[in-house]
Amino acid sequence: MSAPLLTYDRFEPGRVLRSTAERVDDTLLAHWRALYPHDQWAPGTLPLGLATVLLMRAYMRTLSPRPPGNMHARQQLRLHGAIGADDDVVTEFECVGKEIRRERRYVDLAVRGTTTAGRLVFDGRMSLIWAA
Hints:
Layout: E1 16-23, H1 26-35, H2 50-62, E2 71-79, E3 88-101, E4 104-115, E5 120-130
Antiparallel strand pairs: 1-3, 2-5, 3-4, 4-5
């Protein structure tokens, strides 16, 4: 049985929505290297830019099924250190606000990425126009 559609009414400010864990595998890292062949990073760590990739992959996986037509209005991401090559990163989404402006449904989410050991690697905010 599939999960119900994640509609605007289901967002509750102050409530953690969902979280997901992911480790960067060799395939994802190979794609990164193909896109950014001159990118360099410290041994035993991963490229800092992969934090954005992990954030968006978690968004696509965990905040679903979504109604078609949602739009990113704004996004901020702060990096707090390198992700270790052996780290699983747990990305958590919390609804921190929602409002209707000019007949559009806005949802504000806080996002945190931590290692399974609890070390913060990124945090930020996403503001989305939610279609339904």
